[in-house]
Amino acid sequence: MAETRRPIVIGNWKMNGLVDSAVELEATIAANGQGAPCEVMICPPATLLFPFSQLIQGSALRLGAQDCHMAENGAHTGDLSAAMLSEAGATAVIVGHSERRADHGESDAVVRAKAEAAHGAGLTAIICVGETGAQRDAGGAETVVGTQLEGSLPSVLRAENTIVAYEPVWAIGTGRTPTIADIEAMHGFIRRRIEALQGDVAHGIRLLYGGSVKPGNAAEILAVANVDGALVGGASLKAADFSGIFGIYT
Ligand code: PGA
Q: Which of 47, 210, 239, 243 is a plausible cystine mate for 167, CB 3.0–4.6 Å?
């Protein structure tokens, strides 16, 4: 069933980028990304969603947000609901990124509630999981990721509204990546685990690798079985580097 999974490369800008960066990236994608056999998405800071949405009208570039609140509305100063992000132009939202799990103490239950809120607003939830270096060194990577999947995935989901990103914490922003064999083993494990939890829908869900993906290592990583794309941080900030990654699929 792998042929039904259209690859997707997602850029996570984190807390970087002003309007000028959006203009530059849009121009590069317009030049290189149209008609690409993969989807290309940018998750800019929320302040850029609306200007970006104006800029990309008619282009194939898609927009996602980096986080949402689990509630539909209410007294949550500084937070944004999934419906607000949708109105600003997002069609997806990242939930459970390790930086949110670490910096904001987000548990699996919170991540699941956010993913459900995303679905409720019609957004695709990009659910992140991944072990720390210490957990991998202790031989516990699969146990950690399996537990995160069990706790973070909504009990009802569809392949069209759910993407899972495997991002080993120790590979994020470090220039280090797991071996190709380790990526293949973990992605196979994740697919089987989702199947055990959710059944056949697992075969349609796209699994992304994230953590120090660059133009120089993307071809090798994106060719791995059960890797249906990438979640890219640092290298998505430079339009040339980002297009050098999604361009692998062209
Ligand atoms: P990186 O970040 O590509 O800079 O390692 C990936 C991520 O955090 O999504």
A: 210
The ranges assigned to domains in the chain are 38-47+79-238
* pLDDT tens for each residue of 69-83: 999 999 999 999 999
Beta-bridge mates of residue 69: 81
Residue nearest to atom 1 of ligand 1 (CA): 233
What's the rounded Cα separation, in Å, for the pair 121 and 117?
6
Residues 124-165 pLDDT 10s: 999 999 999 999 999 999 999 999 999 999 999 999 999 999
> Atom of ligand 1 at shortest distance to CA of 172?
5
In the set 97, 116, 119, 187, the catalytic residue is 97
172 lines ligand 1 (CB under 6 A): yes
* Pocket of ligand 1 contains residue 208 by CB under 6 Å: no
Distances (CA, A) of 12 to 98, 107, 126, 147: 12, 21, 11, 24
CB burial class (10 A; 0-12, 13-18, 19+) of residue 53?
middle
Which atom of ligand 1 lies closest to the CA of 235?
3
Question: Superfamily for 38-47+79-238?
Answer: Aldolase class I (3.20.20.70)
Phi/psi for 95 (5° steps) reads: -130, 145
Quote the pTM value: 0.96
